[in-house]
Input
Amino acid sequence: MNDKLETVLLKAAVMTFEELGFMLPTPKLDESQQHATAQAAVGVQFRGLFAGELVVLVCGDWLPRLAANMLGEDEPPSLLQQFDALGEIANVICGNVLPQIAGPQVIFNLSAPCPVEIPQMAAIDPECPAAKTQLGLETGRAEVRLYLHSETA
Amino acid sequence: MTLNVLVVDDSAVMRAMIIKSLNLSGLPLGQIYQAANGEEGLRALRSNWIDLALVDINMPVMNGEEMIEEVRRNSELRDLAIIVVSTESSEARIEMLERHGTKFVHKPFAPETLRETIQKLIGVSDERQVGNGAAQSSGYDF
Output
């Protein structure tokens, strides 16, 4: 995997969770964060100079808190709103990462965020993400994976 | 003068965040309308008096760019004040949107950034400056 891509992905993910999700991610994971199980995932597909998908995987139980933070509410919102919030996180990370990889003049079109089934993720993992990063969030972690497809738009 | 605002974004959570940000801005707001894509946005514009539209770019059905082009082609809507609120970072696309007379706010954004952009675009006063004392800086970034 490319170190520069991973740095770009990490910076964009940290900024997005902090500024949009009002959460404080940690780059180092403790044992409970490392072993948190996958609960949900959302992907944003993109096409432009190259095509691919950015996936955010939720490990642990921080998604209700993220959505509540984004809505400024104390109680966790509906599951639909939780996925909507996660989708917006994925969208913002993706939108911030692509110009840093491809250059500021390149135009990409992003799809609406879609939930990704966890078993489906295991199936696409053999493709190997071009870059992957993980952040500690509460007692779990977020994994952000960038997949690049060979075909162009 | 109060501002009727249309918020167009396919994410209901993001629409709620933008509306919260507007409510914190201290701007004199009237009605706030919502739409989940460009097509719904155009319908809202045709059936309501709206002073300002805050429009996302990447949306299903009709994206923000198509909606803005449609607005600028329409003789009744073409002077609408539009701010694009998007994750879009491509300078080429931002320049293209600005040629349509729009301003641009990059996600995530601070409520202050949105307020200042609105003030620059339409010259509306902050309610606090005329003595209503509505909002203070929230410290939030949306």
Q: What stands out?
A: Residues 1-101 of chain A form a domain with the Chemotaxis protein chec fold (CATH 3.40.1550.10). DSSP finds five helices and six strands in chain A. Chain A touches chain B at residues 15-16, 18-20, 22, 67, 70-72, 81, 84-85, 87-88, 91-92, 94-96, 98-100, 104-112 (CB under 8 Å).
